[in-house]
């Protein structure tokens, strides 16, 4: 069956909406979570006990409780949500910024666990695990031929710091099985993907979320860039759904002069909590650019709003998501949690950028789809702002509230000749899967190549472009790349670079022709 490409962006936004529900687009204080210990019998508790004890048939009362909690929260706002134990654990690890494991990126290829790339300097890399290895057994647990879900695989490979695990692997390049003993250790989950120079004086930092370690990672990158001569700074928070607001505030503090307002919150009692910049700023004078898009939310919008409202820099891209709510977590003893909205936040000029949610959660998340259909992603004049909700910065610039951060410089969705489906596809997991499979067929042809030699090699062939087009058709996607060849080639080479050399090299490739970067550098 052929897949109609006009629905591809809609699928993209549907996936985004699901991510929001499951814990994406977070914005909450990084405060100590508290445990519910109240054992008093409420009406709800009595009902659950009554069903559990006396109902005629066997009933899973846990599922009833989950359903009840979800129904209650659905009456509030789109970001007050219940997180089951498995999802809460995953989100908590992501926001903590590390976990204990063996340190490999893997991909379920056919019926086996294939190693894409060991984490640099991690336990697996130190033990000699290589890209392309298949993990057959974790101790005595068989992993191949079982189609295990990712969470089951993670549980087999995780453990406590210093604990041992013996892997049985198949090394395709040598055609033999090996047993490798690995000592588990703390594995960072980086929130800063790259910090690199785009030219002699322009630094670039890509932040994928705001976790506990984000400010520290950002400062490491910023210090390094300044030592290399960076005078201007580009902060990329495209597709960054948010996280701990303190981390975004700390980064804004590095950019703003002392005593400038960064953000303020207001709860239902009318209590206002203002946060100002301190004297510690390490980048208060150079040019600042913040890149946003329709998936930049929450803490990303706090950072962009602080820069825009204080006339500190230029915001480029497309209107951000529009989440101006603050959540607090309440943990339960079974590992689940409720994330409840406790306040609204406001940018320095006093604007709320929260988009309306009075029509229900489904309509709220579908608003992102409407930006595609109404042309907003391609034409600045199609952006719907509430003209009556306007504010002025200190220098007199007009900014709007009521639904996201509107950029100072609009840059449309990167497409070539109207083929918008291709732009979304190239940033999906499909491309990574394809590249792994190509490398798996002939990894030796790249062995020993420097990054410069690799780039020359990739420029001289259409082999992978042609194979990717065939791969897409073969998977039922009726998407012809003919008019977008250069775009496809750029992301293909970038993904090869990522899997062969590392994340930094992916950005070195794809940013060269990135529309927002070009708008700044020209």
UniProtKB/TrEMBL annotation:
Keyword Protease: yes
Cited Pfam families: PDZ_2, Peptidase_S41
GO CC term (a single one): outer membrane-bounded periplasmic space
InterPro entries according to UniProt: ClpP/crotonase-like_dom_sf, PDZ, PDZ_sf, Peptidase_S41A, Tail-specific_protease
Domain Tail specific protease: 175-356
Any one GO molecular-function label of the UniProt entry: serine-type peptidase activity
Keywords: Hydrolase, Protease, Serine protease
GO biological process: proteolysis; signal transduction
Family note: Belongs to the peptidase S41A family.
PANTHER family linked: CARBOXY-TERMINAL PROCESSING PROTEASE CTPA, TAIL-SPECIFIC PROTEASE
Protein name, as recorded: S41 family peptidase
Organism: Flavobacterium pygoscelis
